[in-house]
Write a structure and sequence with these properties.
Blueprint lengths: L3 H19 L3 E3 L2 E7 L2 E9 L10 E2 L3 E2 L4 E10 H5 L25 E5 L9 E2 L10 E3 L5 H18 L4 H9 L15 H12 L2 H17 L7 H15 L6
Antiparallel strand pairs: 1-2, 2-3, 3-6, 4-5, 6-7, 6-9, 7-8
Helix pairs in contact: 1-3, 5-6
Organism: Gordonia araii NBRC 100433
Protein name: DUF4304 domain-containing protein
């Protein structure tokens, strides 16, 4: 049986749903997909944290409002060819061939969390913060639906509108500094996404140039950031997998 928190979130999703459907999104569970072009998909996802008794109700007996009665709204942009070329997808026979039929937020190469308004303004976060911080929305607040709808149509749709196609995305990725995560957020380094997109389109020379620049930049910071050693080792393996040269 679904908890009160789960039922409440489903009610909120149902009320916000018409706004997303009008914008061209389709729904499955608590996730919405909007296919912009084959293999290029915008994603909106509503996420409820782990719910365990006695914190599975809006009010906790003898304690008052549940301090964990929050949910998150995640945004993403999915690029099928880049998804296939992510290092974690490789098996004995290489990357998967078939396109995914439905996209989860965790599949996306660009990932953001839509925050509730703070000081009359809403922001998009690159990284996930505390569950009851600015990135989370209260389930028991009567104003949540109205405020969330506004945040989705302004900040959420505004962010997604920056990526109407692969060309616009690549232009932004390549304009970032080598170590940037500003575009991809928790999806990974911006330049490595550009590498995968160029590889998939057959532009191997451009992919190699960006990859070399990224590796040399990371190597230059190895002394100050020893953890980059493991990252560089994995990049060397990845270069072998996809046919790139790893710079000496």
């Amino acid at each position: 049986m679904a908890s009160e928190l789960s039922r409440t979130l489903d009610e909120i999703v149902a009320q916000v749903g018409p706004t997303l459907r009008t914008a061209g999104f389709r729904k499955r569970g608590r996730t919405y997909n909007r296919t912009i072009s084959p293999g290029f998909v915008h994603v909106v996802n509503f996420q409820l944290g782990r719910v365990i008794a006695p914190f599975d109700t809006l009010q906790i007996r003898g304690r008052g409002p549940n301090p964990y009665a929050y949910f998150a709204v995640n945004l993403g942009v999915f690029v099928a060819e880049a998804w296939r070329l992510e290092s974690s997808r490789f098996g004995p026979e290489g990357p998967p061939i078939d396109d995914k039929k439905w996209i989860s937020e965790s599949d996306c190469q660009l990932r953001r969390r839509l925050s509730r308004p703070q000081d009359n303004r809403s922001v998009l976060r690159r990284f996930v913060g505390r569950r009851n911080g600015g990135e989370s929305w209260p389930l028991g607040d009567a104003s949540t639906v109205a405020r969330l709808t506004t945040a989705i149509t302004t900040d959420g749709f505004g962010w997604l509108a920056r990526y109407p196609d692969r060309t616009a995305l690549l232009a932004e990725l390549e304009g970032r500094p080598p170590s940037s995560h500003e575009t991809c957020g928790i999806g990974g380094p911006d330049h490595l996404l550009a590498v995968r997109m160029h590889l998939a389109s057959g532009n191997t020379a451009r992919a190699q140039a960006i990859f070399t620049d990224y590796v040399l930049h990371r190597r230059a910071h190895l002394g100050a950031e020893p953890h980059l050693g493991g990252h560089l080792e994995r990049l060397s393996e990845y270069a072998d997998e996809v046919g790139l040269s790893f710079p000496n």
